[in-house]
Amino acid sequence: MKGGIVKGMKSVTALGIGLAVSLATVQPAAATEAPQTVNTAHTSSEILDASARAAAAMQDFGIAPGNYIHVDQADAAFFDEVADLALADMAEPTPAPGTACTPGGRAAYAAQIAAVNSARDSNARTPAQETMYMYLSHYIDMSPSHVGTTCNHNSEAPRYSAWITSSDRNAYDQFLATMNLTSAVTTFGDAVSAAGVLQGSPNLTRNISKVADAAAFLTEAADFTFSANAALGLADQLVVSHQNGDTAEQAIADLEASLSPDMPTTYAAAATGVAAALLAPSIVLPVVGIGLAVLPVYTMLGATIINYAAWSSLIYTSNGRVSGRMMRYLGM
Predict the structure, then answer these.
(1) What's the whole-model pTM score?
(2) Which is deepest, 123, 157, 178, 303, by most CB within 10 Å?
């Protein structure tokens, strides 16, 4: 195979950064949208939610960031086709319970409103920083009872979260430093930008969700054991199949033939799906470049704030800063 296949990555987001950087114009393009609009962020939120769920499920299964395999562009089509075939045998993803504003919805709306505000605020910083600031101003910088159920709940009165000031930015910088999230700001912003470009592909979202279901199924299975090491072995076998010139159909058939004859069909489908996902660029990009990039923020700033003292210090100054936002909103 020309160029070969390179295992591992230089960093967790190595595959995501290249795309996200080239998409630097995505956020400003949203600047003409009204602050209350959330529709443009909807499909982006689906990619974010599916990618984060798949990344977490693969981690729980035992797949480390360095286990994903970076293939050359010339080989990408083969491994994407293998993944499509492998995941086609799996049941359709179970729809998640309806939620007005999911974690992905929050991130997508934060990026959208950051672009809106940046167009009217000369003090705005980088798109990634502004995305994080808007995430904090809308969902973290207040008591839980004020968050609301919709992503844009606090954009205008009485919180004016869409009208942050330099005082907010300084407070957020200090909070992020205390939470050890300063280094996550750029990767989080780049991940949200990448999701905005990948939006609008139902098949991609479906495949990512199937990977999440497969990894979770294998992790929770009680009557049959299939380990992460076994999945890595199957991924290596797919590499050999490609080197031998096999078609995607032949590669899947060989993979299934190598599994234990006692393995139930549902387990076999999940096993081949996870193995194929380790190689398919169309899946590795969102799971690694998006999912693993947003998880630290979701975890540290989730339903239970990891550092309660830091959060308490932030919201202690919140009301004073809100008055500055209101004055900016009023043009004072």
Answers:
(1) 0.85
(2) 178
